Structures are given as structure tokens and as C-alpha cells.
Amino acid sequence: MKTHVYEGWIMFPSAWVNLKLYEPGPFYTLIGFGSITWHGLTINNDTWAELPADVQEIMLEVARDYEEQTGTVNQSEYDKHVNTLKGIIKVNEIDPAVRKAWAESLAAWPQKMASELDAQGLPASQVLKLTLEAAEKNGYTWPVRYEVK
């Protein structure tokens, strides 16, 4: 952003605070996309295959704990990070009508991407459906409810 190659990107408040992105980016807009993105840990399949079964088991156990802790920490720290940003930079909130129009313009995209991944043998539509349903069970209301087949 300092070089003006781009003027911003979609990023959650904790990263804007912890990575000090407010220094080159003195504006933050609350969009309301829903929950903070999942934080993934990855490992190369060849490397994974070389690990002993007991090490794989430990890594899977730690990964489950990491997944749970990440969600809990993100939820508990969200307001604190937004308030920190409000104290040091200009924080705006997107107009709900703009947010709805943006969501409507993307209405076909989730199914398109899921279908492409389904064709590669991945359960993308199933994962997308479960994700949408889980968010709704936790009280989230979509500006536009995407339909997934």
C-alpha cells in the first residue's frame, strides 16, 4: 500500500492491528462478511506420508485444538481490535444497501466455484452448504442467501 500498487484489501481487524497495517492504511471499513476466515495449517502430502503414524495422530489432535482455539480467540478479540482501530485510524461501516448489492452481484459465483471443484472430485458443494448452514445456526443472517445445489 505504501507504493500504491494497491490501495487496500479484505482483511480482518486482528490482522490490521497485529500486523500494523494501519500504518500504511489509515482507513478501515467494516463490511460484515460474517465470521473471520478460517486459519489453516498445511503440510505437503509427501512430507505427511513420511511421518510416523503416531506423529500424524499427534498433529491431528493439535490441529483440532488449534481450530477450536482460533475461533474462540477471534470471537473474543474482535470488538477489542475494532475499538483499537477506531482509536488510531478512521473506521467506516459499509452501507447495508451497498453490501446487499455487492452480494447480489456475486450470487452465481459460490455455486460456480463449488461446481468446478466438485468436478475435480472435491466435496465443495457439500462443504459450502454445511458452512452456510452452520453460520445460520449460529445466528448469522446473509444479505443474500446463496443457493447451493
Explain this structure to me?
With 149 residues, the chain is mainly alpha-helical. The protein has a domain at 107-149. It has 6 helices and 2 strands; from the N terminus they run αβααβααα. The chain is globular and about 50 Å long. The model has no long low-confidence stretch (mean pLDDT 90).
List the helices and strands and how they pair.
Layout (H helix, E strand, L loop, with lengths): L12 H6 L8 E4 L14 H6 L2 H36 L1 E4 L2 H10 L3 H11 L4 H14 L12
Parallel strand pairs: 1-2
Task: Name the features.
2 strands; mainly alpha; 6 helices; about 150 residues; two-stranded parallel sheet
Structure at a glance:
The chain has helices at residues 13-18, 45-50, 53-88, 96-105, 109-119, 124-137, and strands spanning 27-30, 90-93. The protein is mainly alpha-helical. The radius of gyration is 19 Å and the shape is globular.
**Spatial sequence of strands, sheet with the most strands:** 1-2
Number of helices: 6
Please summarize the sheet with the most strands: 2 strands, parallel
Gap from first CA to last CA: 39 Å
Order of helices and strands: HEHHEHHH
How much is the radius of gyration in Å? 19 Å
- Per DSSP E runs of 2 or more residues, the count of β-strands stands at 2
